Amino acid sequence: MIDIGLSKMALIGAVALVVVGPEKLPRVARTIGTLLGKAQRYVADVKAEVNRTMEIDELRKMKETVEGAARDVEQSIHSTTRDLEKDWSETTASIESSLSGLDEPLPEQAASTYVAPVYHHPRKNWRLKRAAVPSWYKTRNGVRTHVQSGAARVARFRPRRPLG
């Protein structure tokens, strides 16, 4: 920025004291300070906005490259699946043609007798504690484990009458 030394600052202060006067000098200095602060904030805001726009442009370029790569991958997958389906249909056609020459049909009963095993969810042991907070902590800190109405709580803690 501007190279201002101590001697130049003293000279500017002396000229300002003579021109403005000692009564108005503090007010003028405050006004100049606030204006310089506003100018610095404005310049900082403009720099931040320029940086944001540059980052947005970079992100757009990156997005376009990623989308292009995704399109290329998608096209290669589609071409691979088309080739795979073509090979599959050729293979199944050749197998069917070779099997059509056999006199006896395939035993379909053997394929239908297989029964897949039924999935059973592993049940948890009901004896195990399911709460994360230990019971000694609950009793020490007064955590209620059983719900009790207000009237029942009053009856529970009511002092007993002495006998007789």
UniProtKB/TrEMBL annotation:
Ranges of Basic and acidic residues compositional bias?
70-89
Source domain of life: Bacteria
The positions making up the signal sequence are none
| Residue numbers spanned by region Disordered | 70-90
Q: Which UniProt keywords apply?
A: Cell inner membrane, Cell membrane, Membrane, Protein transport, Translocation, Transmembrane, Transmembrane helix, Transport
What Gene3D superfamilies does the record tag this protein with? Answer: 1.20.5.3310
Membrane-crossing residues? Answer: none
Is Flavoprotein one of the keywords?
no
Could you tell me the membrane topology recorded for this protein?
A: Single-pass membrane protein
User: Where in the cell does this protein reside?
Assistant: Cell membrane; Membrane
Name the InterPro entries on file: TatA/B/E, TatB
Which NCBIfam families has this protein been placed in? Answer: tatB (TIGR01410)
Q: What does the UniProt function comment say about this protein?
A: Part of the twin-arginine translocation (Tat) system that transports large folded proteins containing a characteristic twin-arginine motif in their signal peptide across membranes. Together with TatC, TatB is part of a receptor directly interacting with Tat signal peptides. TatB may form an oligomeric binding site that transiently accommodates folded Tat precursor proteins before their translocation.
- Quaternary structure note: The Tat system comprises two distinct complexes: a TatABC complex, containing multiple copies of TatA, TatB and TatC subunits, and a separate TatA complex, containing only TatA subunits. Substrates initially bind to the TatABC complex, which probably triggers association of the separate TatA complex to form the active translocon.
Q: HAMAP family, per this entry?
A: TatB
Family under the similarity heading:
Belongs to the TatB family.
Name of protein: Sec-independent protein translocase protein TatB
Give the species: Comamonas faecalis
